[in-house]
Design goal:
This protein has helices at 19-42, 46-68, 70-101, 108-126, 135-165, 173-195, 221-243, 245-255, 257-262, 267-292, 299-314, 319-338, 349-363, and strands at 210-214, 217-220. By secondary structure, the chain is mainly α. It has a two-stranded antiparallel sheet with strand order 1-2. It starts with 18 loop residues before the first helix and ends in a 14-residue tail after the last helix.
Length: 377
């Protein structure tokens, strides 16, 4: 009998596997799968490799064209930047509304077309700018046209929100989506009823003389005018959204409408203001488009889808992303229609744009600058 009343265990009572050895074995078994999983996560997926392959092919095609015809390449690049600037104004309207309501306002492109047709009436009938003899009168008339078209677009877009969307905020998303498509056809048919089926255009108002010409690369005053209008509008929009009280209300409503209402923000007024701001951008963009091209009742349908693709490419809900996506889409369209070496041509423009949309939804649903959300947007 041992001291202190404790007996010594016999050999048969000693555990056959010491605890230390079993613990090491368990740790080895648990660490091995985690290491394999880590290596699997670091390995690029097939879709990522495929996407990088297509991007590499595109860059190689652009480099070959730049080496073969450098003058044409940079002229086409300038055209693409101008087209992208117009698309940016429309894409910002999509992204503003989506950011605050998670709603794709498919009527936005048709508001663009109706505003552009209305601008033809203002330019030709109200101010008669085609007969303007002085530069000051022309500049003043164009400035007034931009303001009137912006107010008109804001009025139409905010009316759409009041009539069609406000009562559907708590409805299923499919109901809101169907309503947006229906409003698109309604606005389009209003444009058709008022301005008929023919395309409308205006005489050249901006000089086509070059601002500079370097080794075959020409930049005209007509193209520079688009930059003169677009750049201040984008700067003003950024300041409004990020630095003003109304912009802070928009961002708060976008993050949490219920919490914003508790904090004293008028959510209905903020949403209406956002629709009005998007419509104003559409009106300015439509006037710029009219100065460069012609416009008819269904122009906004195709252009709106292209601008929507640009917003998705940059990251829907992200202002900077919408501008980046619009410029990329504009340059891709210009390269496709303007380059000479193995370019698919204008007939393929729509197919290429929507192929980009599908590729973005497959490879990077949140867009280039967007953030991944639980819905994957």
């Amino acid at each position: 009998m041992p001291r202190n009343g404790h007996r010594t265990p016999t050999t048969s009572e000693v555990p056959p596997n010491p605890p230390r050895i079993s613990r090491i074995a368990v740790e080895a078994r648990t660490e091995q799968p985690s290491a394999l999983a880590l290596r699997g996560r670091n390995r690029p997926s097939f879709l990522s490799v495929l996407g990088l392959f297509f991007v590499g092919l595109l860059l190689a095609w652009l480099v070959v064209n730049a080496l073969k015809t450098p003058g044409d390449f940079f002229n086409v690049l300038l055209i693409g930047l101008i087209t992208g600037a117009v698309y940016a104004l429309v894409a910002l309207g999509y992204t503003l509304v989506y950011g605050i309501l998670q709603l794709i306002n498919f009527a936005h492109g048709d508001v663009f077309a109706l505003s552009g047709l209305f601008a033809t009436t203002v330019i030709l009938s109200l101010f008669n700018l085609s007969g303007a003899t002085s530069t000051l009168g022309l500049v003043g008339g164009l400035l007034a046209t931009f303001v009137i078209a912006a107010v008109f677009g804001a009025t139409v877009n905010s009316t759409i929100e009041l009539v069609a969307y406000r009562r559907l905020r708590s409805a299923p998303r499919l109901a809101v989506l169907i309503t947006a498509v229906g409003m698109s056809f309604i606005v389009q048919n209003i444009s058709l009823a008022i301005y008929d089926v023919n395309a409308r255009s205006i005489p050249p108002l901006i000089s086509a003389h070059s601002v500079f010409s370097i080794r075959g690369v020409t930049y005209s005053w007509e193209a520079f005018f688009v930059v003169l209008v677009t750049a201040p509008v984008l700067v003003l929009l950024t300041w409004l959204v990020k630095s003003t009280r109304q912009g802070k209300a928009m961002r708060a409503t976008s993050q949490d409408p219920e919490a914003a209402a508790i904090m004293g923000i008028n959510v209905n007024r903020t949403i209406t203001f956002t629709f009005a701001l998007a419509g104003a951008l559409a009106g300015i963009g439509a006037t710029l488009y009219l100065i460069e091209f012609n416009i008819r009742y269904d122009t906004g349908f195709t252009l709106g889808l292209i601008a929507f693709t640009a917003a998705v490419l940059g990251g829907i809900g992200n202002l900077t992303g919408a501008v980046l996506g619009a410029i990329l889409i504009g340059t891709i369209q210009a390269f496709n229609e303007g380059l000479s070496w193995n370019a698919p041509g204008p007939a393929w423009t729509k197919s290429i744009v929507f192929a980009i949309l599908i590729a973005i939804l497959v490879f990077r649903p949140e867009g280039l600058l967007g953030e991944r959300t639980p819905e994957g947007a």
